């Protein structure tokens, strides 16, 4: 599976799987960016990231954690 910035839900699921103990109240967008581009399946241009994309990933992750 290839991940791109458009796959915010899939990225959030992978981040949740790789960082299960993270406190989402303390995570920064910079951390989400670093963790995302570090995912082995991530194959998009890191320079394409912006706050809107990172917030979408965060929101998806938060919603997954609430379920």
Describe this structure in words.
- This protein is mainly α and 67 residues long.
- The protein has one domain: IscX-like (Arc Repressor Mutant, subunit A, Orthogonal Bundle).
- Helices cover 55% and strands 0% of the residues.
- The protein has three helices and no strands.
- The N and C termini lie far apart (24 Å).
- The mean pLDDT is 95.
Report a brief summary of the structure.
With 67 residues, the protein is mainly alpha-helical.
Number of helices: 3
- Return Rg in Å: 11 Å
Helix amount: 55-70%
CATH architecture: Orthogonal Bundle
Question: Any chance you could write out the topology, listing elements then pairs?
Answer:
Elements: H1 8-18, H2 29-38, H3 51-66
Helix pairs in contact: 1-3
Keywords:
Arc Repressor Mutant, subunit A, 3 helices, 0% strand
């Amino acid at each position: 599976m290839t991940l791109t910035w458009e796959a915010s839900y899939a990225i959030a699921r992978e981040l949740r799987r790789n960082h299960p103990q993270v406190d989402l109240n303390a995570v920064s967008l910079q951390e989400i960016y670093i963790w995302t581009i570090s995912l082995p399946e991530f194959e998009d241009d890191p320079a394409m990231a912006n706050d809107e994309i990172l917030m979408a990933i965060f929101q998806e992750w938060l919603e997954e954690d609430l379920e």
